[in-house]
Amino acid sequence: MYALLVILQTVVLPLIFGGVHLGVAGGNPAIVFGIWFAFWGVGIRLIVAGISQLTNPRRTTQTILGAAHDDAEDAPDDDDAAVRDETGTGTGTGTGTGAATDTMMKTGAATAQVVQELGLANLSLGVVALVSSLVPGWGLIGALPGAIYLGLAGLRHLAKRGKSTNELVATWTDLLVFLLVVGGVVAAGLRGW
After folding, report:
1. Which residues contact 183 (CB under 8 A, 6 or more apart)?
2. pTM of the model as a whole
3. Helix (H, G, I), strand (E, B) or coil at 75
4. Tens digits of per-residue pLDDT, 67-86?
5. Residue 139 region, left (φ>0) first, then alpha (ψ -120 to 50), else beta?
6. Are 173 and 15 in contact (CB under 8 A)?
7. What is the number of structural domains in the chain?
8. Which residues span the domain enclosing 59?
9. How would you class 125 by CB atoms within 10 Å of its CB: exposed for 0-12, middle for 13-18, buried for 19 or more?
């Protein structure tokens, strides 16, 4: 589902809206498609990502990045500790609560906070890109910070080995949106804004 949504936002919908725009109103294709990639690929994409990260930070860490579960559900419970004690590999306390569990719970909470703060940044960049796409003359410049962010994130993901399908889709669509929005900015700059 994630991969389909990202492909719709960053490839399919910008191409459809840009094509309709060119067919109805004409214009410089690089600028027109740049604006629609700014609207969908930066604006809508980052707004949706931001809302998702704010409401369900675990989705980002587990589904997209493939991180292991980091919440208290994965902490050892009393039964696990008792079994380990019987096999001779446990601590002999009979409880799974303690420093390791506390650390896991704190790590999960800290990770959630970082992802939620990332969500606020994504939401902010997305709103600016979306609104500026609707204001004549602002569309591409307003989306440029979000496009640069996506480009840098895409470059960061390139170096990672063993990416999941979701992360592969995110990597290549991040880079695509970056290149197309920057291409639109260059075309607009050459035209004289």
Report:
1. 30, 34
2. 0.78
3. coil
4. 665 444 444 344 333 333 33
5. alpha
6. no
7. 1
8. 2-191
9. buried
